[in-house]
What does this fold into?
Amino acid sequence: MKRLTLLFLITPSLTFGQLSKQDSLWLPLTFMIGTWTGTSEGQPGNGKYERSYQFALNKKFIEVKNKSTYPPSKNHPEGEVHEDRGFISYDRGRKTFVLRQFHIEGFVNQFKIESISTDAKTIVFITESIENIPGGYRAKETYKILNQNEFTETFELAEPGKEFELYSKAVLKRIK
It folds into this structure.
């Protein structure tokens, strides 16, 4: 019995000891790696999402590819397709993760992690800058891990001098 208990105590240490320094760095975000599909609701209407997160450039970055499709509406009689690309990096100087998004509409958002919950199931990014939008706007993305194959993403915007308001909320499920 003592040997079995010792084995259970040592095994996690051996497993984590084999992670490279680069792999360990990404632990809070590795749940994202994969291909996802989902639905959203919010100001642009009810949409469908296709998204992927993949390590890139020798695991120095996580590359994000996103496509959101919305049906015809009053403001968009033909429907709407939104695409963005992004990269998550680790800023060693500031010891934080940074997300840079490039949107088809010309917006460029630079977020940094504001917080990671103690159980690592809620991650909040807040913008440091937004290009090609009037000054003073802020954005916030909150990821809540529901399980290994599902998470929610809440995107909020704040006009200058105002509090954040919900823009959209998506539920994404892993497809691979």
